[in-house]
Amino acid sequence: MLNRIIRQWAYIPHNSKYCLISDPLFYFITHTLILFLPLYMKKVGVTDFEIGFITSITVLFEFVFHLFAVPFVNKYGRRRSYFISEIIAWVIPIFLWSIAYDVTFFVVAAIFQGATRIGYVAWFCIISEDEDERQITLVYALTYIIIYSCNIIMPLIGSLVEDYGLVKVFRVLYSAGSIILLLVILWRNNKLKETPTGYIKMRESSDFSLVHSLLVFFNVLYSYRHQYLYVKIISIYAITNFIVALNIYQVLYLNDHIGYTENEASVAFGIASLTNVILYVGMYKPFALIKDTKMLFISVTICLIGSLLFLFIKKEHYFDFYATITIITFGGFLLDTYRDAALNSIASNSDKGNLYSVCHTFSLLFSIPAGVMAGYIFEINRTAPFIVIIVLFVVTLLICYSIMTNQVRVGAVLNQ
Q1: For the chain, what is the domain count?
Q2: d(Cα 355, Cα 73) in Å, to the nearest integer?
Q3: Cα–Cα distance between 115 and 118 in angstroms, integer?
Q4: Residue 19 belongs to what domain range?
Q5: Confidence at 304, pLDDT banded by 50, 70, 90
Q6: What is the rounded distance in angstroms from the CA atom of residue 289 to the CA atom of residue 295?
Q7: What is the CATH number of the domain that holds 216?
Q8: Which tens digit of pLDDT belongs to each residue from 213-240?
Q9: Does the structure show a pLDDT above 60 at 328?
């Protein structure tokens, strides 16, 4: 894969290239530093249930913002929407985390974080509209490699936490991160260009109100009601996003219930991320020969295996601990990649933003109660959220299997 990246770099679209260049800093701040956010909340004085409540508030406002994502991005353009939403959704919340001393700060930050959904739709359009499908698949893969590569330095953060304390270290990291992230967003906005489809949508939407654009959005949603393959993929997004919300307690479970320190957990995440990047780079070529829907099935299977093993983690069984976290991370890595690839493969160029938004709208609506539910059952039984996750992965696996068998039947009919 490395040889392909070197050969294809010159052909990667302009917008995608500048997103990838700035992604290491962007995702270190918005992904890696968030892994320990639940522990940071707990140390600041937020209860287990309040952590779940904050998660549900975040998803609720993501849902609200997502309802306006497509009309907003169409009316104001992909580039401008991306710039505005990333400042609101990341710079402001991360700064609030850095000065937080009770649950109120995190609730306010959660409301601002809802704007990430406008940013996701704008980013999806910026890198995929009017571009070669093969290049976009490579961009997806590189993006996820960057995200997980950022986690490799987690052991360094864990070492700092061990020496100076979690709250002190993360107050500095969140404070500095908000400033650095603002500079990254400003630089990226200067380099990105509006897409040709974006200019067309802006002209078409310039005289329309957001309410009118919302009506257009719901018409698109209604038009897909009989496309059962698409409904199944939406279901996979909805269930897996629900799982992500439930999984907010993973670090707390490892720290409070099992007894692993922040440093030991950070080493596990670092090893898992490094192993997964090596595995994915080495297996990218054979993976490329497998259909996206089959890779979805494989990804969910790996996630299910990892979730089952997670229940058997014990203190000081370090090999089992690191291996399990590696399997979970690798499954999630593949699932993120091929879930998006499957969705992208059924979307026409002019409707990609609409379809992406419709899919995530359903997912967010379904996931709103997940945080509160997880917080409630986590206080009653520390393992309960992870048993629910296993059940949901089994359901997702059955949906993936039905998609594959349906495609096999369609292929057999076409070949007759």
Answers
A1: 1
A2: 14
A3: 5
A4: 13-415
A5: very high
A6: 10
A7: 1.20.1250.20
A8: 567 667 766 777 667 777 788 788 889 9
A9: yes
